[in-house]
Structure formats: structure tokens, C-alpha cells
Amino acid sequence: MRSRPARIEWASVTIGAPAPRELAAFYATLLGGEVTASEPARPGEPEQAGWAQVRAGGRTLNFEYERCWSAPVWPARPGQQLASQHLDLYVADLAAASAWALECGARLAEEQPQEDVRVFFDPAGHPFCLFT
Questions:
Q1: Beta partners for 53?
Q2: How many angstroms separate the first and last alpha carbons of the chain?
């Protein structure tokens, strides 16, 4: 049997995006959090590049620049960019939270998998779910 390392802790999730600081601002607003770090583009990178971090509800999301960004497709389709992960966000009132997500700039997915789940796309095209 393997021995467990002294300590490994989950710290954050990092999301790639074509405009990470813009996406961080979206999630800070959506989640009622704050952008706690923001770095400009490095020399030679486009103006929208950079890095940012959001803290909300005791959790941390990082956003980093992806030079070769291609928005994922959901639901998955053969030969198209796969959404290999997404955020699941618990809400007490699905209708109110859905309206808020739209007001913040999210887009509602055409296909919805369940009665108590709403799939949205953030401004960069990442899917995320609101659920009760």
C-alpha cells in the first residue's frame, strides 16, 4: 500500500480563456466575489491576454490566457472542441439565478438536460450549470 504524502490541498481551478481578465470580471459579478489579482499581458502578447484571479464563496478561480483558444461545444459533437470540464453552481432559486446569469452576460444553451438544471455559456463560451 502506498503511503500518503504529508499534505496535498485543493487550492483553485484555472480556466483558459482568450481574454482572462474580462472573464474574471464576469465571474466576479456572477458569483458576488471579487477580482483579487490581475496581471496585464506580457510583452509580445495581445492586449486582452494576461491573468486574473477571483475569490467567491471561499473558493478561487484563476483565469489564464490561451493563445490558441477554441470555444468548446456543448453538448459534445464529433470532431469539435470538447468541454472537458465545467462549473456546477448551486442556486436556491433557479429562475432568479438564471435571470441574473443572463444579465451578467451569460448565454442560455439551447439544449437543457434536466428540469432543475440550466446550462449556460460564459462570455468565452465555457459551459456552466446552475442547479437546485
A1: 37, 62
A2: 40
